[in-house]
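thread: overnight batch results

M.L. [08:02]
morning all. the overnight job finished for the chain we discussed friday. pasting input first so we're all looking at the same thing
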Amino acid sequence: MVLLLPVFQPGDGLPRLVADVRKAGFDDAIVVVDDGSDHPVDVPGCTVLRHPANRGKGAALKTGFAYVTTAHPGHEVVCADADGQHSVDDILRVATRVRDSGATVLGVRRVRRMPPRSQVGNAITRVLFRAATGRWVGDTQTGLRGYPSTLLSWLVTVPGERFEYEMNVLLAAARAGHAIEQVEIATTYLDGNASSHFGSVRDAVRIYRALLRFVVLDR
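M.L. [08:03]
and the structure it wrote out:
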């Protein structure tokens, strides 16, 4: 199992998360992809990959997947946000589920605990995703996801460089018939999710464009 953490301008939450995961008994590899932060990230006990300039979360995830396929072949991957949103218990629960099921596993946030803008955006994308694919996903934008090793090479081929990538992964998985499992998680938002790098309008447009493109191409 590999824990993959894509980061951009991370704060104190990153070393704290790594330390807490280690204390909880996670002794496998932790890979951090620094997506062009102003100050290079250095986290003891982790492999740190770096983009010279910011390319987007999707690009950072794909860099991590490509690295794991060669450096840790046969290992599942759990992706988490490093800003304190995801608890160690939930990360480990997703890790256990992906290992046991061999499926893609989504950590589904409780809607009532989301900031208002996240609640509205998630509600819209949930409905549109079901209309487009016929499959129900409780949280299309969750950053806590587990992937089996058999999908890592495929994940690198999914288009998208920024936040739309994670939507593209779900759409492509639905089209390919890949199994998707879901576990409820208790996400913590700090200062109303102020640390998020999601650019509301611009990134939302990218996500809805991905949904529209899926519908058009699937006809």
